Amino acid sequence: MSKQTLSFQTEVAQLLNLVTHSLYSNPDIFLRELISNASDACDKLRFEGLNNAALYEDAPSLEVRVSFDKAAKTLIISDNGIGLSQQEAIDNLGTIAKSGTRDFMAKLSGDQKNDAQLIGQFGVGFYSGFIVADTITVESRRAGLPASEGVRWTSAGTGDFEVETIERAPRGSSVILHLKDDAAEYLNTWKLKSIISKYSDHISLPILMKKEEWKEGEKDQPGEMVTTDEWETVNQAAALWTRAKKDITAAQYDEFYKQISYDQNPPLASTHNRVEGATEYTQLLFIPAKAPMDLFNRDKAAGVKLYVKRVFIMDDAQALMPTYLRFVKGVVDSSDLPLNVSRELLQESRAVKAIREGCTKRVLSMIEDLAANEPEKFAGFYAEFGAVLKEGLGEDFANRDRLAKLLRFASSTTDTVTVGFADYKARMKDGQDAIYYITADTQAAAKNSPQLEIFRKKGIEVLLMTDRVDEWALSYLNEFDGTPLQSVAKGAVDLGKLQDEDEKKAAEEAQTRFKPILDKLKEALKDKAQDVRATTRLVDSPACLVVQDGGMSTQLARMLKQAGQAAPEVKPILEINAQHPLVKKLEGSEHFDDLAHILFDQALLAEGGLPDDPSAYVKRVNALLV
User: Fold this and answer.
1) CA distance 602 to 542
2) Full DSSP string of 600-619
3) Could you read off the pLDDT of 221-235 as tens digits, one per residue?
4) What is the pTM of this model?
Protein backbone atom coordinates (compact mmCIF):
# COMPACT_ATOMS: atom_id res chain seq x y z
CA MET A 1 0.00 0.00 0.00
CA SER A 2 1.41 3.40 -0.99
CA LYS A 3 2.48 5.80 1.77
CA GLN A 4 3.80 9.32 1.28
CA THR A 5 4.85 12.24 3.43
CA LEU A 6 3.81 15.68 2.17
CA SER A 7 4.27 19.22 3.44
CA PHE A 8 1.45 21.52 4.45
CA GLN A 9 0.77 24.61 2.41
CA THR A 10 3.14 27.37 3.56
CA GLU A 11 0.63 29.28 5.68
CA VAL A 12 -0.93 26.23 7.36
CA ALA A 13 1.87 25.77 9.90
CA GLN A 14 1.37 29.34 11.10
CA LEU A 15 -2.39 28.82 11.23
CA LEU A 16 -2.10 25.53 13.12
CA ASN A 17 0.11 27.16 15.74
CA LEU A 18 -2.42 29.98 16.10
CA VAL A 19 -5.43 27.64 16.36
CA THR A 20 -3.69 25.35 18.84
CA HIS A 21 -2.32 27.94 21.22
CA SER A 22 -4.33 31.13 21.11
CA LEU A 23 -7.47 31.19 19.01
CA TYR A 24 -10.07 29.41 21.10
CA SER A 25 -11.05 30.75 24.48
CA ASN A 26 -13.58 27.88 24.60
CA PRO A 27 -11.96 24.60 23.50
CA ASP A 28 -15.33 22.79 23.44
CA ILE A 29 -15.98 24.35 20.04
CA PHE A 30 -13.70 21.78 18.34
CA LEU A 31 -16.48 19.17 18.69
CA ARG A 32 -19.03 21.52 17.17
CA GLU A 33 -16.75 22.05 14.17
CA LEU A 34 -16.01 18.36 13.58
CA ILE A 35 -19.69 17.37 13.90
CA SER A 36 -20.61 20.18 11.48
CA ASN A 37 -18.06 18.85 8.99
CA ALA A 38 -19.50 15.34 9.39
CA SER A 39 -23.02 16.70 8.82
CA ASP A 40 -21.80 18.57 5.71
CA ALA A 41 -20.31 15.32 4.37
CA CYS A 42 -23.72 13.63 4.77
CA ASP A 43 -25.43 16.59 3.07
CA LYS A 44 -23.03 16.24 0.13
CA LEU A 45 -23.88 12.55 -0.19
CA ARG A 46 -27.60 13.36 -0.16
CA PHE A 47 -27.06 15.90 -2.92
CA GLU A 48 -24.89 13.66 -5.13
CA GLY A 49 -27.20 10.74 -4.36
CA LEU A 50 -30.11 12.53 -6.04
CA ASN A 51 -28.59 11.65 -9.40
CA ASN A 52 -26.73 8.48 -8.35
CA ALA A 53 -28.52 6.39 -5.72
CA ALA A 54 -25.75 3.76 -5.91
CA LEU A 55 -23.55 6.06 -3.78
CA TYR A 56 -25.60 5.06 -0.73
CA GLU A 57 -24.24 1.49 -1.19
CA ASP A 58 -25.80 -0.66 1.55
CA ALA A 59 -26.17 2.12 4.15
CA PRO A 60 -29.10 4.44 3.23
CA SER A 61 -29.45 5.93 6.73
CA LEU A 62 -27.05 8.84 7.29
CA GLU A 63 -25.65 9.43 10.76
CA VAL A 64 -22.76 10.74 12.85
CA ARG A 65 -21.19 8.63 15.62
CA VAL A 66 -19.12 9.95 18.52
CA SER A 67 -17.11 7.46 20.60
CA PHE A 68 -14.01 7.37 22.77
CA ASP A 69 -11.43 4.94 24.12
CA LYS A 70 -10.16 5.88 27.59
CA ALA A 71 -7.24 3.44 27.46
CA ALA A 72 -6.01 4.70 24.09
CA LYS A 73 -6.96 8.34 24.92
CA THR A 74 -8.75 8.72 21.59
CA LEU A 75 -11.97 10.50 20.63
CA ILE A 76 -13.54 9.48 17.32
CA ILE A 77 -16.10 11.38 15.22
CA SER A 78 -17.38 9.20 12.34
CA ASP A 79 -19.87 9.79 9.56
CA ASN A 80 -21.16 7.74 6.65
CA GLY A 81 -21.30 10.70 4.29
CA ILE A 82 -19.57 11.30 0.97
CA GLY A 83 -16.03 10.49 2.23
CA LEU A 84 -12.67 11.40 0.70
CA SER A 85 -10.52 9.94 -2.03
CA GLN A 86 -6.76 10.01 -1.49
CA GLN A 87 -6.35 13.09 -3.67
CA GLU A 88 -9.25 14.85 -1.92
CA ALA A 89 -7.60 14.15 1.44
CA ILE A 90 -4.38 15.76 0.19
CA ASP A 91 -6.22 18.72 -1.36
CA ASN A 92 -8.68 19.37 1.45
CA LEU A 93 -6.72 18.46 4.57
CA GLY A 94 -3.24 19.49 3.49
CA THR A 95 -4.12 22.93 2.22
CA ILE A 96 -6.67 25.53 3.17
CA ALA A 97 -6.13 27.84 0.23
CA LYS A 98 -9.69 27.10 -0.91
CA SER A 99 -10.97 28.36 2.40
CA GLY A 100 -9.39 31.78 1.96
CA THR A 101 -6.38 31.47 4.24
CA ARG A 102 -5.05 34.90 3.43
CA ASP A 103 -8.42 36.49 4.14
CA PHE A 104 -8.68 34.50 7.35
CA MET A 105 -5.26 35.63 8.60
CA ALA A 106 -5.98 39.24 7.61
CA LYS A 107 -9.20 39.31 9.65
CA LEU A 108 -7.58 38.20 12.92
CA SER A 109 -7.65 40.92 15.56
CA GLY A 110 -5.95 39.26 18.51
CA ASP A 111 -9.21 39.06 20.44
CA GLN A 112 -9.67 35.37 21.23
CA LYS A 113 -13.43 35.57 21.51
CA ASN A 114 -13.89 37.38 18.20
CA ASP A 115 -11.24 35.44 16.31
CA ALA A 116 -12.73 32.09 17.32
CA GLN A 117 -15.81 32.87 15.23
CA LEU A 118 -13.70 33.05 12.08
CA ILE A 119 -12.86 29.34 12.15
CA GLY A 120 -16.12 28.07 10.71
CA GLN A 121 -16.56 31.14 8.53
CA PHE A 122 -13.40 30.35 6.58
CA GLY A 123 -13.82 26.58 6.50
CA VAL A 124 -10.81 25.76 8.66
CA GLY A 125 -12.83 24.07 11.40
CA PHE A 126 -11.07 20.73 10.93
CA TYR A 127 -7.85 22.21 12.30
CA SER A 128 -9.60 23.12 15.56
CA GLY A 129 -9.11 19.47 16.53
CA PHE A 130 -5.49 20.33 17.31
CA ILE A 131 -6.67 22.36 20.29
CA VAL A 132 -7.22 19.12 22.20
CA ALA A 133 -5.22 16.59 20.17
CA ASP A 134 -1.48 16.27 19.57
CA THR A 135 -2.13 13.97 16.59
CA ILE A 136 -5.13 13.61 14.28
CA THR A 137 -5.76 10.59 12.06
CA VAL A 138 -8.45 10.65 9.38
CA GLU A 139 -9.56 7.37 7.81
CA SER A 140 -11.93 7.70 4.88
CA ARG A 141 -13.35 6.15 1.73
CA ARG A 142 -15.24 8.08 -0.88
CA ALA A 143 -18.71 6.78 -1.75
CA GLY A 144 -18.53 4.71 -4.95
CA LEU A 145 -14.85 3.74 -4.63
CA PRO A 146 -13.85 0.15 -3.77
CA ALA A 147 -12.83 -0.76 -0.20
CA SER A 148 -9.21 -1.09 -1.36
CA GLU A 149 -9.09 2.66 -2.10
CA GLY A 150 -9.52 3.91 1.44
CA VAL A 151 -7.13 6.57 2.72
CA ARG A 152 -5.45 7.29 6.03
CA TRP A 153 -4.24 10.88 6.69
CA THR A 154 -2.13 11.54 9.76
CA SER A 155 -0.60 14.73 11.17
CA ALA A 156 0.83 16.00 14.43
CA GLY A 157 -0.09 19.56 13.43
CA THR A 158 3.44 20.53 12.40
CA GLY A 159 5.03 20.94 8.98
CA ASP A 160 4.22 17.56 7.41
CA PHE A 161 1.40 15.05 7.09
CA GLU A 162 1.33 11.42 5.96
CA VAL A 163 -1.10 9.86 3.49
CA GLU A 164 -1.41 6.15 2.79
CA THR A 165 -3.83 3.82 1.04
CA ILE A 166 -5.78 1.49 3.33
CA GLU A 167 -8.51 -1.13 3.13
CA ARG A 168 -11.74 0.46 4.45
CA ALA A 169 -15.12 -1.18 4.11
CA PRO A 170 -17.46 1.54 5.49
CA ARG A 171 -18.19 4.60 3.39
CA GLY A 172 -17.44 8.02 4.88
CA SER A 173 -14.84 9.34 7.32
CA SER A 174 -13.57 8.78 10.85
CA VAL A 175 -11.65 11.61 12.53
CA ILE A 176 -9.54 10.10 15.33
CA LEU A 177 -8.21 12.60 17.86
CA HIS A 178 -5.25 11.40 19.95
CA LEU A 179 -5.96 13.62 22.93
CA LYS A 180 -3.39 15.63 24.86
CA ASP A 181 -2.90 14.81 28.54
CA ASP A 182 -4.78 17.95 29.60
CA ALA A 183 -7.82 17.07 27.43
CA ALA A 184 -8.88 13.91 29.30
CA GLU A 185 -12.19 15.58 30.23
CA TYR A 186 -13.42 14.78 26.69
CA LEU A 187 -13.21 11.03 27.46
CA ASN A 188 -16.50 11.37 29.29
CA THR A 189 -20.00 10.62 27.98
CA TRP A 190 -21.72 13.30 30.05
CA LYS A 191 -19.24 15.98 28.92
CA LEU A 192 -19.61 15.07 25.23
CA LYS A 193 -23.41 14.88 25.45
CA SER A 194 -23.59 18.35 27.04
CA ILE A 195 -21.44 19.85 24.27
CA ILE A 196 -23.54 18.17 21.57
CA SER A 197 -26.74 19.37 23.22
CA LYS A 198 -25.45 22.94 23.34
CA TYR A 199 -23.86 23.29 19.92
CA SER A 200 -25.18 20.56 17.62
CA ASP A 201 -28.72 19.78 18.78
CA HIS A 202 -30.20 21.25 15.60
CA ILE A 203 -28.24 18.96 13.25
CA SER A 204 -30.91 17.25 11.17
CA LEU A 205 -29.41 13.75 11.22
CA PRO A 206 -28.89 11.56 14.29
CA ILE A 207 -25.72 11.95 16.36
CA LEU A 208 -25.16 8.60 18.08
CA MET A 209 -23.16 7.66 21.17
CA LYS A 210 -22.85 4.37 23.01
CA LYS A 211 -25.37 4.07 25.81
CA GLU A 212 -24.19 4.05 29.42
CA GLU A 213 -25.90 2.13 32.21
CA TRP A 214 -25.47 2.04 35.96
CA LYS A 215 -23.87 -1.15 37.23
CA GLU A 216 -24.07 -1.96 40.92
CA GLY A 217 -20.79 -2.76 42.62
CA GLU A 218 -20.05 -6.26 43.95
CA LYS A 219 -18.74 -7.17 47.40
CA ASP A 220 -19.05 -3.69 48.90
CA GLN A 221 -17.45 -2.06 45.83
CA PRO A 222 -19.08 1.20 44.63
CA GLY A 223 -21.28 1.13 41.55
CA GLU A 224 -20.31 2.86 38.30
CA MET A 225 -21.54 3.86 34.85
CA VAL A 226 -20.48 1.33 32.22
CA THR A 227 -20.59 1.68 28.44
CA THR A 228 -22.78 -0.79 26.55
CA ASP A 229 -22.65 -1.84 22.89
CA GLU A 230 -26.01 -0.17 22.22
CA TRP A 231 -25.98 3.16 20.30
CA GLU A 232 -28.46 5.92 21.18
CA THR A 233 -29.34 9.25 19.56
CA VAL A 234 -28.15 12.13 21.74
CA ASN A 235 -29.50 15.10 19.75
CA GLN A 236 -33.01 16.09 18.71
CA ALA A 237 -32.17 14.76 15.21
CA ALA A 238 -34.78 17.08 13.74
CA ALA A 239 -33.92 20.27 11.92
CA LEU A 240 -34.74 23.15 14.25
CA TRP A 241 -36.88 24.93 11.66
CA THR A 242 -39.11 21.86 11.25
CA ARG A 243 -40.08 21.86 14.92
CA ALA A 244 -43.05 23.80 16.30
CA LYS A 245 -42.19 27.28 17.59
CA LYS A 246 -43.68 26.46 21.00
CA ASP A 247 -41.14 23.64 21.40
CA ILE A 248 -38.10 25.85 20.75
CA THR A 249 -36.57 28.08 23.42
CA ALA A 250 -35.01 31.50 22.80
CA ALA A 251 -31.64 29.99 23.78
CA GLN A 252 -32.01 27.28 21.10
CA TYR A 253 -32.82 29.89 18.45
CA ASP A 254 -29.78 31.92 19.53
CA GLU A 255 -27.47 28.90 19.46
CA PHE A 256 -28.73 27.88 16.02
CA TYR A 257 -28.11 31.42 14.75
CA LYS A 258 -24.57 31.40 16.13
CA GLN A 259 -23.94 28.05 14.48
CA ILE A 260 -24.99 29.12 10.98
CA SER A 261 -23.59 32.67 11.14
CA TYR A 262 -20.32 32.16 13.08
CA ASP A 263 -21.38 35.19 15.12
CA GLN A 264 -20.65 35.24 18.86
CA ASN A 265 -23.55 37.62 19.60
CA PRO A 266 -27.22 36.60 19.71
CA PRO A 267 -29.33 37.95 16.83
CA LEU A 268 -31.16 41.27 17.05
CA ALA A 269 -34.43 39.80 15.77
CA SER A 270 -35.74 36.59 14.26
CA THR A 271 -38.80 35.20 12.52
CA HIS A 272 -39.88 31.56 12.13
CA ASN A 273 -42.86 30.80 9.88
CA ARG A 274 -44.37 28.12 7.74
CA VAL A 275 -45.79 29.67 4.58
CA GLU A 276 -48.59 27.80 2.83
CA GLY A 277 -50.36 28.51 -0.43
CA ALA A 278 -49.29 28.25 -4.05
CA THR A 279 -45.70 27.86 -2.81
CA GLU A 280 -45.03 26.08 0.47
CA TYR A 281 -41.86 26.67 2.48
CA THR A 282 -40.55 27.23 5.98
CA GLN A 283 -38.41 30.27 6.77
CA LEU A 284 -36.22 30.83 9.82
CA LEU A 285 -34.55 34.22 9.38
CA PHE A 286 -32.30 36.29 11.64
CA ILE A 287 -31.14 39.92 11.66
CA PRO A 288 -27.65 40.11 13.22
CA ALA A 289 -26.84 42.62 15.94
CA LYS A 290 -23.55 43.61 14.29
CA ALA A 291 -22.52 44.05 10.67
CA PRO A 292 -19.91 41.64 9.26
CA MET A 293 -16.57 43.08 8.20
CA ASP A 294 -17.32 42.47 4.51
CA LEU A 295 -20.83 43.96 4.52
CA PHE A 296 -20.05 46.36 1.68
CA ASN A 297 -18.49 43.72 -0.55
CA ARG A 298 -21.43 43.19 -2.89
CA ASP A 299 -19.51 40.53 -4.86
CA LYS A 300 -19.16 38.18 -1.88
CA ALA A 301 -21.56 35.25 -1.94
CA ALA A 302 -24.26 35.94 0.62
CA GLY A 303 -27.71 34.61 1.23
CA VAL A 304 -29.68 32.14 3.29
CA LYS A 305 -29.19 28.38 3.34
CA LEU A 306 -31.53 26.54 0.99
CA TYR A 307 -32.98 23.13 1.81
CA VAL A 308 -35.52 21.21 -0.23
CA LYS A 309 -37.57 18.78 1.88
CA ARG A 310 -34.80 18.98 4.49
CA VAL A 311 -32.11 18.04 1.93
CA PHE A 312 -29.35 20.65 1.92
CA ILE A 313 -28.97 22.24 -1.53
CA MET A 314 -26.74 25.29 -1.19
CA ASP A 315 -25.16 27.60 1.35
CA ASP A 316 -25.60 31.08 -0.10
CA ALA A 317 -28.85 31.04 -2.04
CA GLN A 318 -28.59 34.61 -3.32
CA ALA A 319 -31.75 34.26 -5.40
CA LEU A 320 -33.86 33.96 -2.22
CA MET A 321 -32.92 37.34 -0.74
CA PRO A 322 -32.26 40.70 -2.47
CA THR A 323 -28.70 42.01 -2.34
CA TYR A 324 -29.59 44.91 -0.06
CA LEU A 325 -30.70 42.39 2.61
CA ARG A 326 -27.44 40.41 2.34
CA PHE A 327 -26.88 40.74 6.09
CA VAL A 328 -29.84 38.42 6.83
CA LYS A 329 -28.92 34.90 7.97
CA GLY A 330 -31.14 31.88 8.11
CA VAL A 331 -32.69 28.86 6.43
CA VAL A 332 -35.40 28.37 3.83
CA ASP A 333 -36.76 24.84 3.40
CA SER A 334 -39.02 24.46 0.38
CA SER A 335 -41.49 21.72 -0.45
CA ASP A 336 -42.00 22.86 -4.05
CA LEU A 337 -38.57 23.22 -5.63
CA PRO A 338 -37.21 20.21 -7.55
CA LEU A 339 -34.65 18.29 -5.47
CA ASN A 340 -32.04 18.51 -8.22
CA VAL A 341 -32.46 22.28 -8.49
CA SER A 342 -29.49 23.94 -10.14
CA ARG A 343 -28.27 27.48 -9.67
CA GLU A 344 -29.51 28.38 -13.16
CA LEU A 345 -32.99 26.99 -12.46
CA LEU A 346 -32.99 28.84 -9.18
CA GLN A 347 -32.87 32.13 -11.06
CA GLU A 348 -35.82 31.24 -13.29
CA SER A 349 -38.25 29.36 -11.07
CA ARG A 350 -41.61 30.96 -10.30
CA ALA A 351 -41.54 29.33 -6.86
CA VAL A 352 -38.17 30.96 -6.13
CA LYS A 353 -39.63 34.36 -7.03
CA ALA A 354 -42.49 33.77 -4.56
CA ILE A 355 -40.07 32.68 -1.82
CA ARG A 356 -37.85 35.71 -2.43
CA GLU A 357 -40.81 38.09 -2.21
CA GLY A 358 -42.08 36.36 0.93
CA CYS A 359 -38.69 36.48 2.65
CA THR A 360 -38.20 40.14 1.71
CA LYS A 361 -41.58 41.12 3.13
CA ARG A 362 -40.95 39.15 6.31
CA VAL A 363 -37.58 40.83 6.91
CA LEU A 364 -39.03 44.29 6.26
CA SER A 365 -41.83 43.49 8.72
CA MET A 366 -39.21 42.60 11.36
CA ILE A 367 -37.43 45.91 10.79
CA GLU A 368 -40.72 47.86 10.85
CA ASP A 369 -41.60 46.16 14.12
CA LEU A 370 -38.28 47.26 15.62
CA ALA A 371 -38.87 50.84 14.42
CA ALA A 372 -42.37 50.95 15.87
CA ASN A 373 -41.89 49.09 19.16
CA GLU A 374 -38.19 48.90 20.05
CA PRO A 375 -36.58 52.25 19.16
CA GLU A 376 -33.27 51.45 20.88
CA LYS A 377 -32.87 48.19 18.99
CA PHE A 378 -33.88 49.92 15.76
CA ALA A 379 -31.26 52.64 16.34
CA GLY A 380 -28.65 49.89 16.79
CA PHE A 381 -29.85 48.13 13.63
CA TYR A 382 -29.81 51.35 11.61
CA ALA A 383 -26.30 52.27 12.73
CA GLU A 384 -25.08 48.89 11.45
CA PHE A 385 -27.22 48.32 8.34
CA GLY A 386 -28.91 51.61 7.41
CA ALA A 387 -26.51 52.29 4.53
CA VAL A 388 -27.16 48.93 2.81
CA LEU A 389 -30.90 49.25 3.38
CA LYS A 390 -30.79 52.39 1.21
CA GLU A 391 -29.53 50.30 -1.71
CA GLY A 392 -33.04 48.85 -1.84
CA LEU A 393 -34.43 52.14 -3.18
CA GLY A 394 -32.71 51.40 -6.47
CA GLU A 395 -33.10 47.62 -6.40
CA ASP A 396 -36.59 46.89 -5.06
CA PHE A 397 -39.24 49.04 -6.69
CA ALA A 398 -42.09 47.01 -5.17
CA ASN A 399 -40.98 47.84 -1.60
CA ARG A 400 -39.62 51.35 -2.22
CA ASP A 401 -42.30 53.09 -0.15
CA ARG A 402 -41.80 50.71 2.79
CA LEU A 403 -38.05 51.29 2.66
CA ALA A 404 -38.44 55.07 2.46
CA LYS A 405 -40.43 55.03 5.71
CA LEU A 406 -37.56 53.20 7.45
CA LEU A 407 -34.80 55.63 6.45
CA ARG A 408 -33.35 57.95 9.10
CA PHE A 409 -31.05 60.98 8.85
CA ALA A 410 -29.48 63.73 10.90
CA SER A 411 -30.73 67.21 10.06
CA SER A 412 -29.83 70.86 10.44
CA THR A 413 -31.78 70.79 13.73
CA THR A 414 -30.48 67.52 15.24
CA ASP A 415 -27.13 65.72 15.11
CA THR A 416 -28.59 62.29 15.85
CA VAL A 417 -29.58 60.01 12.95
CA THR A 418 -33.23 59.81 13.98
CA VAL A 419 -35.22 61.95 11.53
CA GLY A 420 -37.49 60.05 9.16
CA PHE A 421 -39.26 61.60 6.18
CA ALA A 422 -42.58 61.39 8.04
CA ASP A 423 -41.07 63.26 11.05
CA TYR A 424 -39.72 65.93 8.71
CA LYS A 425 -43.08 66.37 6.96
CA ALA A 426 -44.89 66.70 10.28
CA ARG A 427 -42.88 69.81 11.16
CA MET A 428 -42.61 71.49 7.73
CA LYS A 429 -43.32 75.21 7.73
CA ASP A 430 -46.57 76.59 6.35
CA GLY A 431 -46.03 77.23 2.67
CA GLN A 432 -43.10 74.78 2.40
CA ASP A 433 -43.70 72.47 -0.54
CA ALA A 434 -40.54 70.31 -0.64
CA ILE A 435 -38.40 68.11 1.63
CA TYR A 436 -34.96 69.69 1.50
CA TYR A 437 -31.75 67.70 1.83
CA ILE A 438 -28.02 67.99 1.24
CA THR A 439 -25.41 65.28 0.55
CA ALA A 440 -21.84 65.56 1.80
CA ASP A 441 -18.85 63.44 2.84
CA THR A 442 -19.29 64.14 6.55
CA GLN A 443 -21.96 65.48 8.86
CA ALA A 444 -19.80 68.51 9.72
CA ALA A 445 -19.35 69.33 6.01
CA ALA A 446 -23.10 69.03 5.44
CA LYS A 447 -24.08 71.08 8.49
CA ASN A 448 -21.64 73.91 7.69
CA SER A 449 -22.27 74.02 3.94
CA PRO A 450 -22.85 77.53 2.54
CA GLN A 451 -25.90 76.16 0.70
CA LEU A 452 -27.73 75.90 4.05
CA GLU A 453 -27.38 79.57 4.98
CA ILE A 454 -30.71 80.86 3.70
CA PHE A 455 -32.49 77.79 5.10
CA ARG A 456 -30.93 78.33 8.51
CA LYS A 457 -31.87 82.03 8.41
CA LYS A 458 -35.49 81.16 7.68
CA GLY A 459 -35.60 78.23 10.15
CA ILE A 460 -36.20 75.61 7.47
CA GLU A 461 -35.00 72.11 8.40
CA VAL A 462 -32.65 70.37 5.94
CA LEU A 463 -31.84 66.64 6.06
CA LEU A 464 -28.11 65.86 6.17
CA MET A 465 -27.16 62.83 4.09
CA THR A 466 -23.60 61.61 4.58
CA ASP A 467 -23.56 57.92 3.55
CA ARG A 468 -21.71 57.22 0.31
CA VAL A 469 -24.81 55.53 -1.08
CA ASP A 470 -27.17 58.46 -0.39
CA GLU A 471 -26.97 60.39 -3.62
CA TRP A 472 -27.28 57.27 -5.76
CA ALA A 473 -30.19 55.98 -3.67
CA LEU A 474 -32.02 59.34 -3.63
CA SER A 475 -31.94 59.44 -7.43
CA TYR A 476 -34.59 56.68 -7.24
CA LEU A 477 -36.78 58.50 -4.72
CA ASN A 478 -38.22 61.72 -6.10
CA GLU A 479 -40.95 62.21 -3.52
CA PHE A 480 -42.25 60.95 -0.20
CA ASP A 481 -45.97 60.67 0.43
CA GLY A 482 -46.68 63.19 -2.33
CA THR A 483 -44.03 65.76 -1.25
CA PRO A 484 -41.08 66.21 -3.65
CA LEU A 485 -37.50 65.81 -2.42
CA GLN A 486 -35.21 68.70 -3.35
CA SER A 487 -31.43 68.87 -3.02
CA VAL A 488 -30.37 72.32 -1.79
CA ALA A 489 -27.22 71.96 -3.94
CA LYS A 490 -29.06 71.44 -7.23
CA GLY A 491 -30.81 74.02 -9.37
CA ALA A 492 -31.64 77.61 -8.47
CA VAL A 493 -32.93 78.06 -4.94
CA ASP A 494 -36.69 78.46 -5.00
CA LEU A 495 -38.33 78.68 -1.61
CA GLY A 496 -41.69 79.42 -3.17
CA LYS A 497 -44.10 80.95 -0.65
CA LEU A 498 -41.35 81.05 1.99
CA GLN A 499 -39.53 83.76 0.08
CA ASP A 500 -41.16 87.19 0.30
CA GLU A 501 -41.55 89.57 -2.64
CA ASP A 502 -38.83 91.97 -1.44
CA GLU A 503 -36.27 89.15 -1.47
CA LYS A 504 -37.27 88.04 -4.95
CA LYS A 505 -37.09 91.62 -6.21
CA ALA A 506 -33.66 92.18 -4.61
CA ALA A 507 -32.35 89.00 -6.27
CA GLU A 508 -33.57 90.09 -9.70
CA GLU A 509 -32.03 93.55 -9.26
CA ALA A 510 -28.71 92.06 -8.16
CA GLN A 511 -28.66 89.84 -11.25
CA THR A 512 -29.23 92.86 -13.50
CA ARG A 513 -26.98 95.34 -11.67
CA PHE A 514 -24.19 92.83 -11.30
CA LYS A 515 -24.35 91.54 -14.89
CA PRO A 516 -21.03 93.02 -16.06
CA ILE A 517 -19.19 91.37 -13.15
CA LEU A 518 -21.01 88.08 -13.75
CA ASP A 519 -20.06 88.12 -17.45
CA LYS A 520 -16.44 88.86 -16.55
CA LEU A 521 -16.41 86.00 -14.01
CA LYS A 522 -17.87 83.62 -16.62
CA GLU A 523 -15.04 84.49 -18.95
CA ALA A 524 -12.35 84.12 -16.25
CA LEU A 525 -13.74 80.76 -15.09
CA LYS A 526 -14.94 79.36 -18.43
CA ASP A 527 -12.76 76.23 -18.00
CA LYS A 528 -14.14 75.52 -14.52
CA ALA A 529 -17.72 76.78 -14.24
CA GLN A 530 -20.70 76.14 -16.48
CA ASP A 531 -22.31 79.41 -15.39
CA VAL A 532 -21.97 82.18 -12.82
CA ARG A 533 -25.03 83.81 -11.26
CA ALA A 534 -26.11 85.90 -8.29
CA THR A 535 -28.06 84.05 -5.61
CA THR A 536 -30.21 84.60 -2.54
CA ARG A 537 -29.24 81.27 -0.92
CA LEU A 538 -26.06 82.75 0.65
CA VAL A 539 -26.04 84.87 3.81
CA ASP A 540 -22.50 84.83 5.22
CA SER A 541 -20.43 83.14 2.49
CA PRO A 542 -19.23 84.82 -0.70
CA ALA A 543 -19.87 81.90 -3.06
CA CYS A 544 -21.00 78.29 -3.41
CA LEU A 545 -21.16 75.63 -6.11
CA VAL A 546 -24.37 74.02 -7.33
CA VAL A 547 -25.28 71.80 -10.25
CA GLN A 548 -28.29 71.79 -12.54
CA ASP A 549 -31.41 69.91 -11.48
CA GLY A 550 -30.98 66.26 -12.44
CA GLY A 551 -27.22 66.68 -12.85
CA MET A 552 -24.54 64.65 -11.07
CA SER A 553 -23.17 66.43 -8.01
CA THR A 554 -19.48 67.21 -7.73
CA GLN A 555 -19.41 65.01 -4.60
CA LEU A 556 -20.73 61.94 -6.46
CA ALA A 557 -18.33 62.56 -9.35
CA ARG A 558 -15.44 62.68 -6.85
CA MET A 559 -16.57 59.43 -5.21
CA LEU A 560 -16.75 57.63 -8.56
CA LYS A 561 -13.26 58.77 -9.49
CA GLN A 562 -11.89 57.69 -6.10
CA ALA A 563 -13.43 54.26 -6.68
CA GLY A 564 -11.70 54.06 -10.07
CA GLN A 565 -14.95 54.30 -12.01
CA ALA A 566 -15.63 56.45 -15.04
CA ALA A 567 -17.41 59.68 -14.15
CA PRO A 568 -18.57 62.45 -16.51
CA GLU A 569 -16.77 65.76 -16.19
CA VAL A 570 -18.98 67.90 -13.96
CA LYS A 571 -18.87 71.65 -14.54
CA PRO A 572 -20.72 73.23 -11.62
CA ILE A 573 -22.47 76.60 -11.48
CA LEU A 574 -20.80 79.23 -9.30
CA GLU A 575 -23.35 81.20 -7.30
CA ILE A 576 -22.16 84.41 -5.65
CA ASN A 577 -23.48 86.55 -2.82
CA ALA A 578 -23.70 90.06 -4.27
CA GLN A 579 -23.77 91.56 -0.75
CA HIS A 580 -20.49 90.00 0.40
CA PRO A 581 -17.47 92.34 0.77
CA LEU A 582 -15.17 89.97 -1.14
CA VAL A 583 -17.56 89.93 -4.10
CA LYS A 584 -17.91 93.74 -3.98
CA LYS A 585 -14.12 93.96 -4.03
CA LEU A 586 -14.10 92.30 -7.45
CA GLU A 587 -15.42 95.43 -9.12
CA GLY A 588 -12.48 97.38 -10.48
CA SER A 589 -9.88 95.15 -8.80
CA GLU A 590 -6.52 94.77 -10.57
CA HIS A 591 -6.44 91.18 -9.17
CA PHE A 592 -9.81 90.26 -10.69
CA ASP A 593 -8.61 87.01 -12.29
CA ASP A 594 -6.90 85.80 -9.10
CA LEU A 595 -9.91 86.72 -6.94
CA ALA A 596 -12.25 84.92 -9.36
CA HIS A 597 -10.23 81.68 -9.10
CA ILE A 598 -9.95 82.02 -5.31
CA LEU A 599 -13.74 82.43 -5.06
CA PHE A 600 -14.26 79.25 -7.09
CA ASP A 601 -11.63 77.19 -5.22
CA GLN A 602 -12.91 78.30 -1.81
CA ALA A 603 -16.44 77.25 -2.80
CA LEU A 604 -14.97 73.87 -3.83
CA LEU A 605 -13.12 73.53 -0.51
CA ALA A 606 -16.29 74.40 1.44
CA GLU A 607 -18.07 71.36 0.00
CA GLY A 608 -15.20 68.96 0.67
CA GLY A 609 -13.47 69.09 -2.71
CA LEU A 610 -9.93 70.08 -3.63
CA PRO A 611 -8.77 72.60 -6.26
CA ASP A 612 -7.44 71.04 -9.45
CA ASP A 613 -4.15 72.84 -8.81
CA PRO A 614 -3.71 73.35 -5.03
CA SER A 615 -0.30 75.02 -5.40
CA ALA A 616 -1.76 77.64 -7.78
CA TYR A 617 -4.50 78.34 -5.24
CA VAL A 618 -1.92 78.82 -2.45
CA LYS A 619 0.16 81.16 -4.64
CA ARG A 620 -2.86 83.32 -5.45
CA VAL A 621 -3.87 83.60 -1.78
CA ASN A 622 -0.30 84.38 -0.71
CA ALA A 623 0.06 87.05 -3.39
CA LEU A 624 -3.02 88.85 -2.05
CA LEU A 625 -1.90 88.52 1.58
CA VAL A 626 1.47 90.30 1.11
Assistant:
1) 9
2) HHHHHHHTT---SSHHHHHH
3) 787 878 888 999 998
4) 0.70
